[in-house]
Design a protein that fits this description.
Layout: E1 5-10, H1 13-21, E2 30-33, E3 42-45, H2 47-50, H3 60-66, E4 71-73, H4 77-92, E5 97-102, E6 105-109, H5 111-114, H6 117-135, E7 139-144, H7 147-156, E8 162-165, H8 168-175, H9 188-196, H10 202-207, H11 209-216, H12 218-227, E9 245-256, H13 259-279, E10 282-293, E11 298-308, H14 311-322, E12 330-338, E13 341-342, H15 350-354, H16 356-376, H17 390-403
Parallel strand pairs: 2-4, 7-8
Antiparallel strand pairs: 1-6, 1-7, 2-3, 5-6, 9-12, 10-11, 10-12, 10-13
Helix pairs in contact: 4-6, 11-12, 13-14, 13-17
């Protein structure tokens, strides 16, 4: 045994943070995401709201139909990020390796600190205690021999739960008669394929291995191994340089066929993408454009470029691709960069030596932003630095949509 893994999963994280900060919300069905009169989905629902059938990723209109008396609230992402940072400080104090899955979820390899499962048990309870006492929140903790088993364990006693799965035999005994969806990576579509072939439980997978592999190929090999409790994946810390792409998108509250407005939105999205890329020391060699039309048809376009190391580069190339797509009402637009590499990998050229190109791009960006400010009466003084925040971006885009003069 070369890993002892803890999986920590916060309980209804966004809703729990809001309830902690506003005790009047306690015990009430709280739905974080879009508002009922808006487009969008549920980000998190409190356990009180879940009793009505509301769950994450549900269309907000459906959530309102199920829970019309719920309290609906936009997420406060910067607050959640700050709390997530505090959580990571707690988790990192016990882990030799930490793999964050989201703001509120992570795998910890605690073999070095714990020594054995008894030590891991103590760490698991200590994480729960510190989370409650220091942050006023609850979490569910699973201790196990593998990542899959640890995640299964953390879900076993939610909310505020603790559970252990110490051997592959323990894992198999727990899940063998459960639906195939209890296995990691088996989603709705995969489950439908298996069900249609008469494979409904983990036991069925074990007994019909060849059929599963014929049906699902490489994924079938993977889930067959899981059905026997085999998962040797390592806890791997995320590194920004491992990202394959960086992107940003926005959904409009009302479809738009104003493509000049879409170009203006692309400018803000390009600023967001460039800011994130520079924060992690990356630049791209490709620019992508994404659109979702009013009928939900999605398209994407991409093109390789010499360099996409400025917001002006990203914007210019995204606008070129936008000009080539079919003009129909648009529900969502996004842009991003790909073929990423670190700043240290860049080859020095005349642009780097004389920095003339960089100055030119900054001048171009300033001109574009000044035009945007004039067009919409926006004041970016001290505001542009906040545009990357989800709330600020969406509010700005909606303000622009409503005040656009054709």
């Amino acid at each position: 045994m070369d890993q002892i893994i803890i999986h920590v999963d916060m309980d209804a994280f966004f809703a729990a943070v809001e309830t902690r900060d506003d005790p009047s919300l306690r015990g009430k069905p709280l739905i974080i995401g879009s508002l009922p009169n808006e487009r969008g989905v549920v980000a998190t629902a409190s356990y009180e709201a879940r009793r009505y059938g509301v769950h994450s990723a549900m269309n907000i209109k459906e959530a309102y139909r199920l829970c019309p008396n719920g309290i609906y609230m936009h997420p406060h992402m910067e607050k959640y990020k700050a709390v997530s940072g505090q959580l990571h400080e707690i988790w990192n104090s016990y882990a030799s390796a930490l793999e964050a899955i989201a703001f509120d979820e992570a795998y910890l390899d605690v073999k070095e600190q714990a020594g054995d499962f008894a030590g891991a048990r103590g760490i698991g309870h200590e994480i729960k205690r510190r989370t409650r006492e220091e942050l006023g929140l609850s979490c569910s903790v699973g201790v196990a021999y593998s990542k899959t088993a640890a995640k299964t364990a953390s879900e076993e006693k939610k909310p505020d739960g603790y559970f252990e799965i110490l051997t592959p035999e323990d894992y198999v005994a727990l899940i063998i008669d459960r639906d195939v969806r209890s296995l990691y990576t088996v989603g709705e579509k995969t489950a439908e394929k298996l069900h249609a072939s008469g494979i409904r439980t983990v036991r069925d997978i074990r007994e019909k291995q060849d059929q599963v592999i014929r049906l699902l190929g490489k994924q079938g090999q993977w889930i067959t191994r899981l059905a026997f409790g085999i998962d040797d994946r390592r806890v791997t810390p995320y590194r920004p340089e491992d990202a394959k792409s960086i992107g940003r998108e926005v959904t409009f509250q009302k479809d738009t066929d104003d493509y000049e407005f879409l170009k203006d939105v692309l400018l803000l999205l390009a600023v967001c993408v460039d800011r994130r890329a520079k924060r992690v020391g990356l630049h791209g060699k490709g620019v992508a454009l994404k659109l979702t039309y009013a009928d939900m048809k999605q398209i994407s376009r991409s093109q390789t470029v010499v360099s996409a190391d400025s917001a002006a580069d990203i914007y210019r190339n995204a606008v070129i691709m936008l000009a080539e797509v079919e003009r129909r009402p648009v529900r969502l637009i996004g842009t991003g960069i790909y073929n990423l590499s670190g700043d240290e990998d860049r080859q020095l050229g005349f642009d780097d030596v004389f920095a003339e190109s960089a100055r030119s791009k900054e001048t171009e960006l300033k001109r574009l932003l000044d035009e945007l400010k004039e067009r919409y009466g926006l004041d970016f003084a001290g505001h542009l630095e906040q545009i990357y925040q989800t709330d600020t971006l969406h509010k700005t885009v909606e303000y622009m949509r409503k005040h656009r003069r054709r």
